[in-house]
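can u pls check wat happens w/ MU-OXO-diiron
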Amino acid sequence: MHNKNNITEKIYWVGTNDRRTHIFENYWPLPKGVAYNSYVIVDEKVAIVDTVEKGTMDEYLDNIEEVLDGRKADYLIVNHMEPDHSGSIRSLVERYPEMKIVGNKKTFPMLERYYGVKDNLMEVREGDSIDLGEHKLNFYMVPMLHWPETMVTFESNNGILFSGDAFGAFGTLDGSIFDDELDLDYLEEEISRYYSNIVGKYGRPTQNALKKLGGLEIKMICATHGPIWRTHIADIVAKYDKWSQYKTDEGCVIVYSSMYGNTEKMADNIARHLVRKGIKKIRIHDSSKTHPSYIINDIFRYRGVILGSCAYNGDVFPTMETLINELEHMGVKDHVLGVFGSKSWGGGGLKRLNKFAENIKWETIEVTPEALCAPGQEDFDQCEALADGMAKRLKELYS
Ligand code: FEO
């Protein structure tokens, strides 16, 4: 580190930046990297809040040593056990064997199974607190945000919420740690992509957590990824409130799977008619090119979704299957759906998309064009009818 990163006089950021890992959780792309945030509170007692992924552990341990300047840690607060935050626990325990590990009853079985750590545990429950001297830590359980053991820690004397993954973001902290020090426009998609990809399945637990924490006087939010929020707290809380209620804007995401361009032609035709009917925000993705991470993020933004696939071995195209599986698995809510496809003989693509429509239970547009080989005029007429149906519904919802 070489410079201590104070967030208050006695609280330090000791996290790390990871620009080497390409995919988070071995699935989600990290074009701008990711930060693992951890914090140290130096008081009469010393507390470390969360740790980092083991790939950046050496730097992390150095950061802590520098801040502690020969002192030992008294507590390690484990808000979340996913290994991007718990990955350095065993090394910390070896370095500070007297340190008490603070978690809840769901934390400790994971701690033992992942790392074989089972001593010096201090269980806390909802509303429990620990006094460090000038700092007081209060614990609140926020289950399924986004794991069952997740909790947050509120330092009540300074109004600092250590929020775990909640309010986090992809993207490294490039020379800055606070929201008002960095270029938030540059990180905008990384913030929403973090929510939609990682937390998005858990809208209701997020709403529950927002209600539970709503009464706290929060002056700073220290998440485990992304910037520390101190100036734009209301904005990020409002975004989480909107996203977790699946509230979206007027617009339409069109995703197609096309081997030889025929299904793509239909997608372009549908887009043109949507624009003619006054829908301006159109996002078209080729499922073979764009990772589901970005497509899902757009689907969290816009109400309309139109999916089209060629038939492939009597089924939907594999990259479309990946996307619709993920959407079903996440249980994304409250969209208007249109589907279309193409086939050269028996079909299968549109059939699977219709099955998806049944499973996901979104409102649907009745017209479902399916071209035989290459689309002809009658297919383009159907595409227009599908676009008309979508545009009409979006206008009704947003006028
Ligand atoms: Fe950033 Fe759920 O771990």
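Residues 80, 82, 84-85, 146, 165, 224-225 surround MU-OXO-diiron (CB under 6 Å).
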